[in-house]
Design brief:
Number of strands: 3
Oligomer: single chain
Structural class: mainly alpha
C-alpha cells in the first residue's frame, strides 16, 4: 500500500449519517406536532425513532413516526377577496339604483360606495376566517405520520 491511499475504514467505525444532520432539518412538510412544540428544536433521533431503539428505525426495522395534528383550515385570501367583491356588488346596486344627483356622476358615487362597502366586507370576511379557523382547531384530529424514504428521487 502506498502513502497516497487512505487506510481502509472499518464498517463498525463509520459515522451514522442521521447523526451528522443538523437538528433543524427535520422534514415536517407542514405537520404540526400534537403537543404544540415548535418543530425547529426537535432532533430527529429523539422524536422520529422508536423510544426503545436509540440506533434508529433502520437498525430494528420499526418505522419512524411522529404524532401530528390534522385539521382543515380555511385560506384567508379567497375569503377576503369574496368579501371585497360582495362589497363592490353592494356599492354597484346602491350607486345605480339611487336617485340621480346633478353634482355627482354615477362613477364617482360608485367609487365612494365601493370604498365604503368593500373595506367593511373585507374586514368581515377576515373575521369570519378567524372564527372558522378557531373552530377547526377544536375539531383537529390526532394522527401518526410515518417517515418514508423515496429511493427514486
Amino acid at each position: 500500500m502506498t502513502s497516497e491511499q487512505p487506510p481502509p475504514i472499518d464498517p463498525a467505525e463509520q459515522p451514522d449519517a442521521r447523526a451528522a444532520r443538523p437538528a433543524d432539518t427535520a422534514d415536517s412538510r407542514g405537520a404540526v406536532p400534537a403537543d404544540d412544540r415548535p418543530a425547529a428544536g426537535i432532533t430527529p433521533d429523539r422524536d422520529r425513532t422508536a423510544p426503545d431503539n436509540p440506533a434508529g428505525p433502520a437498525a430494528s426495522g420499526t418505522p419512524a413516526y411522529r404524532e401530528v395534528s390534522v385539521r382543515r383550515a380555511p385560506k384567508i385570501i379567497p375569503f377576503m377577496a369574496l368579501g371585497a367583491i360582495l362589497g363592490f356588488l353592494a356599492a354597484l346596486v346602491v350607486a345605480y339604483t339611487g336617485p340621480v344627483d346633478p353634482t355627482l356622476t354615477r362613477g364617482s358615487v360608485l367609487g365612494f360606495f365601493t370604498v365604503a362597502f368593500a373595506v367593511p366586507g373585507l374586514l368581515l370576511a377576515a373575521l369570519l376566517v378567524l372564527v372558522i379557523d378557531r373552530r377547526s382547531i377544536r375539531k383537529a384530529e390526532r394522527a401518526r405520520a410515518e417517515e418514508t424514504f423515496d429511493d427514486g428521487a
